[in-house]
Amino acid sequence: MRRRCSGAPGRGQLVTLVVVCSALLLRWASADTPPHEGPREGVRLSDAWLEKALLLAAGGSVEEAQSTTAALTRAAAGDIASPPPAGRRKRPPPPQAHSPPPPLLPPSPPPPSPTPPPAKAVPVPAPAGTAGKKKRPPPTFPLSPPPPSPPPSPPPQKGSRKRPPPPGVPPSPPGTPSPPRKPKRLRPPPPELPLAPSPPPPPPPRPPPPPLQQEPDIDWARYPSYAQLSEYLALRVAGSLGRCSLASAGKSVQGRDLWAVTIGDPSGVYYPDPANPDVPFPKARAAYIGVMHGDEKGHISAVLRLIGELCDPLSEPKFAPGGVQDANVTDLLASTVLYVLPLMNPDGYTATQRYNANGVDLNRNFLTSAFPFATPTPADGYALQPGTSSALYNAAADWTDNGGGGSHEPETLAVMSWLAAVRPHVSADLHGGAMVASYALDACDSRGEDLDCPSPEAPLPGYLANVYSMNHPSMRFSWGEMQASRQVAFFNGTTQGATWYPAIGTIADWLHHTYRRHMLTLELHYYKYAMFTADKLNMYATNRASMLRLAGVGGHMGLRALLRDATSGAPLAATVTPQQPGGAWAPEVENGGLVWKMAMPGVTYSGTIMPYDPADTSVSYEPIPYSFVVPYSWDDVLAKVPRANLAIARVFRAVRVGGPAAQASTATASPPQLQQQQQQQQQQSPPPNAPQPPAQQQQQQQ
Ligand SMILES: [Zn+2]
After folding, report:
1. What share of the chain is helix, strand, coil (3-state, %, to 5)?
2. Three-point CA angle 405, 408, 412, nearest 5°
3. Region 274-300: what's the mean pLDDT?
4. What is the predicted pLDDT for the residue at 105?
5. Which of 110, 238, 573, 591 has the most crowded CB, counting CB atoms within 10 A?
């Protein structure tokens, strides 16, 4: 073909030849449609078409056109015969002789430069097209770059773009000059076409993403590294204008800090008692602990973003719907100090493993003498009870044989100390692998035989769990799980830990037995590590309301009172003897004279406070009876009633025995009311231990 085109014809013929050549090129290029047919077939089929083209375009005679066509066809046939027959696209690079195609890669080669290698001469390889196919195998060449994927289709721009890659290859090594057959030429014509269409795609100028140092936010579609997480916390706290503080609660086995963020001023106060508007109360304390198990990363974004929002001085209007202040956020910050330890197991998190660097399950590592049952023995651990999961087995193994050695891990000790200092009124540790809010207790005995050992405070813990699950868009619908062929039903997405599956040595049980505080074990995502991006991104959005409500209400619902010397106003200590409801924990008296008791709405709590002055035990005080009822239902607690309404705020002024008058205490409830309440209490039966629906509970109490 080349020759023909480059020959020196007359002017009139020039036009004709150009047209014919172009037509042939196009036809040939498109002739490969049938993969196995080979180019020849294409050429034959194009005879009629060529003739027409000649006649119409060149205006020559029919005979002339026919002869020209015949010649062209012969030439094309010869050319094609030599080259690899089979489909050019898939055709593995033929022997070296064929290899030449690669050189074509550089689509640039303008038509002129291509030397006139006698196409026919090239056929050095073999005569028959089939021969060419068979020869492929021999190609000692690392034809690996099969890219020589020949000329796809002439017009397709894609083909031209794909070629670029191979060019770099040393394709031409062997007799490069050889038969730069049709494919090469084909390109020349199409090149212009592709260029035309290409223009549309405008080059999108993307500015490189700003480095993390400049943007104190994280790509929540990914799990942040420990370093990113640490930086995020530092930046958020630094930008909080004093609202938040950051400290290390201790070090992991591998030396990583267990970051603990304090949101709000621990020494801050608020004024909850309308009857004593000038008496400041210490704020309530709530705590969240994230990622105890290093492979349960899904909720890391929730705890981090909670910190990010609450530590941002502008967060309230920014995050609230419609840009209006979120009452929950405002109230939480005004009345409560929130403590968040987002990553308890940084080593496991970094390694994406459940255990810490010593291979110990941290949520089975809190066993102490405070537990009401003996330390499990290996026999306990291996005595897997029917109907239970392997959790107990792991528990005892961790404690005695699996690296636990009966001792507490560094992370465990650090968090124990942190919790002992914080003493949260309400708290939760966060996990993944299920969707449920689990409450005390997690273990009933050292063998995991008993699956139902409610807290003495039951059903309070169960309702506390409802505060979380019922404010969550999907947790409330979590129906249950199968555990070792035993079906466990969740109620509103809540369950008692041991009923789900016994686990010995959990942090929640430790806090329960040691400090009599309620800590929920929250399973926030069905998948531990591998989560959908959407779930990662939505983790905070789906948990925000629950986290705010639990933290903002949990520490306030019930009695919050100050105990002071009626004369000096000095804070006093006291021993408290509860009367109602039976079995419930007595109100706790903290340093500074704060008397508090988490209470069930609608239930009457009563008892006697015996004040004393730890600094001067020679002084005696009159006993102070107390009684209160949170005048709301659990439905109200879940979301409706403002935090302030759920708290019974009082100031008890203790009168010294033999002291001035008998003003006694200033219990808000009047004597008549107390009597009435006590009578009612006697008629009431202690609340059942098993959690019940708010409606049921309410009716029962009433
Ligand atoms: Zn877990």
Report:
1. 35, 15, 45
2. 145
3. 95
4. 38
5. 573
8 A C-beta contact, residue 51 and residue 67: no
Rounded mean pLDDT, 261-286: 94
208 Cβ contact list (under 8 Å, min separation 6): none
Q: How far is CA 364 from CA 1, 367, 602, 653, in A?
A: 83, 7, 36, 44
Q: In angstroms, rounded to a whole number, what is the distance separating the alpha carbons of residues 432 and 69? A: 76
For ligand 1, the distance from its centroid to the CA atom of residue 372, given in whole angstroms, is: 23
CATH topology of domain 559-660: Immunoglobulin-like (2.60.40)
Angle of the 507-515 helix axis to the 410-422 helix axis, nearest 10: 40
Question: Measuring CA to CA, how many Å separate 589 from each of 74, 102, 611?
Answer: 107, 86, 10
- pLDDT at res. 258: 98
- Nearest 5°: the CA angle 667, 672, 675 is 95
Return the structure tokens found at 595. 């008397």
Q: How far is the CA of 535 from the centre of ligand 1 (A)?
A: 18
Q: Taking residues 609-624, what's their average pLDDT?
A: 94
Summarised one tens digit per residue, pLDDT across range 23-81 is: 445 444 444 433 333 333 333 434 444 444 444 444 444 455 455 445 444 544 444 33
Active site residue 51: no
Q: What is the structure's pLDDT at 300?
A: 95
Beta-carbon neighbour count of residue 322 at 10 Å? 7
Residue of higher predicted confidence among 660 and 694? 660
- SS3 assignment, position 438: strand
Identified catalytic residue from 309, 409, 523, 588: 523
Question: How many angstroms does the Cα of residue 296 sit away from the middle of ligand 1?
Answer: 6
What dihedral do alpha carbons 553, 559, 565, 568 form, nearest 10°? 30
* Least confident stretch, 189-198, 545-554, 668-677: 668-677
Asked if the peptide bond before residue 123 counts as cis, ω within 30 degrees of 0, the response is: no
Residues 372/320, Cβ–Cβ less than 8 Å: no
CA of 553 to the centre of ligand 1 (A): 25
The DSSP secondary structure of 298-348, one letter per residue, reads TTHHHHHHHHHHHT-TTHHHHHSGGG---HHHHHHHHHEEEEEE--S-HHH
- Ligand 1 centroid to Cα of residue 439, in Å, is 14
* Two structure tokens written together for 105: 């890669």
The residue to which tokens 């949990």 are assigned: 554
Looking at the structure, give the CATH architecture of the domain made up of residues 226-379+393-555.
3-Layer(aba) Sandwich (3.40)
Band of residue 372 on the pLDDT scale cut at 50, 70, 90: confident
Instruction: For residue 431, report the distance from its CA to the centre of ligand 1, in Å.
Output: 4
pLDDT, averaged across the chain: 71
CA gap 553, 561 in Å, rounded: 16
Ligand 1 centroid – CA 585 distance (Å): 28
Domain ranges of the chain: 226-379+393-555, 559-660
Mean pLDDT of 533-546: 93
pLDDT tens per residue across span 377-390: 656 654 433 334 44
Q: Which residue has the higher pLDDT, 3 or 190?
A: 190
Mean pLDDT confidence for 284-294: 97
Q: What's the 3-state SS for 582-621?
A: CCCCCCEECCCCEEEEECCECCEEEEEEEEECCCCCCCCE
The amino acid that residue 28 corresponds to is W
Q: Which two tokens mark 17?
A: 């030849």
Is residue 576 within a helix (H) or strand (E), and if so which, with residue range?
A: strand 573-580
Predicted pLDDT of residue 562: 96
Q: Does pLDDT of 152 surpass 70?
A: no
pTM: 0.65
